[in-house]
Design goal:
Layout lengths: L4 H13 L3 H13 L1 H5 L19
C-alpha cells in the first residue's frame, strides 16, 4: 500500500483548519475512554465503529 504523504497532509490541513481543535481533542479523549472501542482498536474496522453523530469532528 503506497500512501501519498502530500495528499494526506493536504487533507489533514484542510480538516484541521476548519475544525474546532478543542472539540476534536475532547472527542479523541472520549474515544480513548470507551472500553468497547479500546477492545477493538486493533481491528481494521475501528473507524466504522465511530458514531459520526456522537463524534462529528473525527
Amino acid at each position: 500500500n503506497n500512501i501519498d504523504i502530500d495528499t494526506v497532509d493536504q487533507k489533514l490541513n484542510k480538516c484541521l483548519s476548519t475544525t474546532n481543535l478543542e472539540d476534536l481533542e475532547e472527542q479523541i479523549i472520549n474515544i480513548k475512554c470507551v472500553i468497547n472501542l479500546k477492545s477493538l482498536a486493533s481491528d481494521g474496522n475501528f473507524w466504522k465503529l465511530i458514531n459520526k453523530n456522537k463524534y462529528p469532528n473525527l
